[in-house]
Amino acid sequence: MTAVVTVEEGTHSPYALSHLDALESEAVHIFREVAGEFENPVILFSGGKDSIVMLHLALKAFAPAPVPFSLLHVDTGHNFAEVLEYRDRVVAAHGLRLHVASVQDYIDRGVLKERPDGTRNPLQTLPLTERIQSERFDAVFGGGRRDEEKARAKERVFSLRDEFSQWDPRRQRPELWNLYNGRHAPGEHVRVFPLSNWTELDVWQYIAREGIELPQIYFAHRREVFRRGGMWLTAGEWGGPKDAETVELRQVRYRTVGDMSCTGAVDSDATTLDDVIAEIAASRLTERGATRADDKLSEAAMEDRKREGYF
Amino acid sequence: MSTTTTEVLPETTLLRFATAGSVDDGKSTLVGRLLHDSKSVLTDQLEAVERVSASRGQEGPDLALLTDGLRAEREQGITIDVAYRYFATPRRRFILADTPGHVQYTRNMVTGASTAELTVVLVDARNGVVEQTRRHAAIAALLRVPHVVLAVNKMDLVGYAEPVFAAIAEEFTAYATELGVPEVTAVPISALAGDNVVEPSANMDWYGGPTVLEHLETVPVSHDLAHCHARLPVQYVIRPQSAEHRDYRGYAGQIAAGTFRVGEDVTVLPSGRTTRIAGIDLLGEPVDAAWTTQSVTVLLEDDIDVSRGDLIVPTEDAPATTQDVEATVCHVADAPLTVGHRVLLKHGTRTVKAVVKDIPSRLTLDDLSLHPHPGQLVANDIGRVKIRTAEPLPVDSYADSRRTGSFILIDPADGTTLTAGMVGESFASPEPVKDETDDGWEF
Asked: Where is the Phosphoadenosine phosphosulphate reductase domain (chain A) (predicted)?
């Protein structure tokens, strides 16, 4: 027999917050805690949807005052032009200060070496951590979500990093109630993840609800791509296609925005936010599984990169 | 409201819950089934699990690999740390704190329970209520988790027999009620076979209650808290100092409990100054009233001194301030907590110096016995503590308010989070709840 369960307005009391309101309120609380307890915080801003939502939340958290943080972008040198254009437009519109740490500079100076596989994602760690040290940032906001990846599922909202920016999963502080502990020694910093409890769908629903503008590469468009490692990569001067690879013109969109060398496009007809939400709700692949090559390098790829200081 | 999957995903409510279970109770299978049957395990994740399981020579996919995210956990095949999992149904979104069950990980159970509005305690139907079950129930009661679900698992191995379930449910409910747990819902399940987890069981037609998922979808969330003592810890003062907002001075914070209204008389603690709410901004939009857990900015009529760490409360419902805090604590750090220990105490948005004056007792969770004057608390110990603070604090009893009745102790030398604290009596009174619309619980 079926149990008798009545779903009534009781679960939607006038005082119960919707899941998006609850997540928004929690994220705003996290931003304000950092503003209250740290000297020199910075928001990692890539121009991807998560960091765009992060910035939107920060703007709301301190309204009508300006956001009391600057932004930091680690530019791999293989970024999508549409995303850089978006980044600069947003920074100008809100009168924000943008720091750019450039992977290309490190390669040009011979400090970093191009990898044989051409991916520059792992190369971001050194420019990021050196810039954190040189600017003496003591809190660094990242758009990482626990639903993205199983090592990230273990990450605290306030995640202490040592003077080498290393993450030690065994040394994490228990995080109780909403009492975040931001104590750190000089030279250490805290990575802060206001979107920890958001899922990919939450992010998209929030973008739709708030009417947040995104770079156009998140929506279906015709683009020259080629197949590598089971993914559609954008053709370009960064290093593709190679000999046996051929360029095709396909209707695609991006689910994540990262380095062109390791971020794949998905075939899609989704041209509006509603289309995108419907597409993701029906998808049988996670965004990282679908479009990120670097997470496939090993079972613990993300954990290993995070230990070294990656976000 | 009827929701169908053809609509583009309406906004729903959010339930935070925790699972507790011993190693072989089938917790991973239950979590795996909830995630799997709600379509939250996607193909690439399942393929990764299947690949690793096969490479280890295991026959089927080991669903524990979905939650054990760290190298050390996979190597040892155990869950060390809390993992947070996310899944959704058309009715509700869920945040699951998947906590390890070993006694040496009590601190992780406490961590998971601190934000949970519901705990699922798993019991093996063949073994019934065991020490570990009592421990889980005690932690749920101690942390004042409003709803407890007893999932009697492996019913398939006891012939789906009603008397087995009924005896376990009765014993557990009696124990939990004695601890003051306000609501226990017992469900007979087989996580492996899928009985009563997501789909109602065809094997147990004697059971008339909800499946685990139905209960998770329909249990009321924290909305009653809007009727509790109103509390707003001030996080940050917003002063735009722009031409447009020259005189704007807003006190930003997340409402910890209750409801605030424009025009209300309020007191700022610990100073005790009084004024009136001139306006409330809800993330940029003016509103007449706001309630827990909204993040707001409050504007006051008088230009009085208010800063981060202060608590805004209704003048007619202000808590007393004290420098002597008595609490039940769970010690979460590896180094012990001792009498005379100088610490920092974070309560709401305020961090003050404090000293541990006394540790009157340590609690044994297995039988709830008290050991007087243990001298110290080591990792995972739960005990009573008396603390003297350098400044007066407006603390509530944890029984009245999980947010303003809780605190953490921090090591001033290296910033380690030492201890989780709950002000007031350890366990709730087992008296029956008087008013069904206000069960007195707090999130």
From this structure: 40-264
Q: Specify whether the CB–CB gap between B319 and B269 falls below 8 A.
A: yes
* B441 compared with B86, residue with greater pLDDT: B86
What type of residue is B221?
V
Contact B253 A32 (CB under 8 A): yes
* Amino acid code (one letter) for A88: D
Cα separation, B283 vs A291, in Å, equals 34
Interface mutation target, options A168, A177, A184, A190, chain B, most CBs of B under 10 Å: A177
The answer as to whether A9 is a domain residue is no
Between B31 and B73, where is the model more confident? B31
Q: Among B9, B81, B402, whose Cβ lies nearest the Cβ of A177?
A: B402
ipTM metric: 0.90
pLDDT at B254: 98
pLDDT at B434 over 50: no
Please, where are the H alpha helices in B21-117?
27-37, 43-55, 64-67, 71-76, 106-114
Distance CA A272, CA A274 (A): 5
Q: Which long-range contacts (CB under 8 A, 24 or more apart) does A246-249 make?
A: A248/A224, A249/A222, A249/A223, A249/A224, A249/A225
Query: Across the strands, what pairs with B147?
Result: B118
On the question of a cis peptide bond just before residue B416, with omega within 30 degrees of 0, the verdict is no
| Residue A243 sits in the same domain as residue A114 | no
If asked whether residues A117 and A245 sit together in one domain, one would say: no
* Whether A50 and A97 share a structural domain: yes
Contact (CB<8Å) A63/B281:
yes
- Domain of A24? 19-201+300-308
Number of domains in chain A: 2
- Paired strand residues for A251: A222
Global pTM reads 0.90
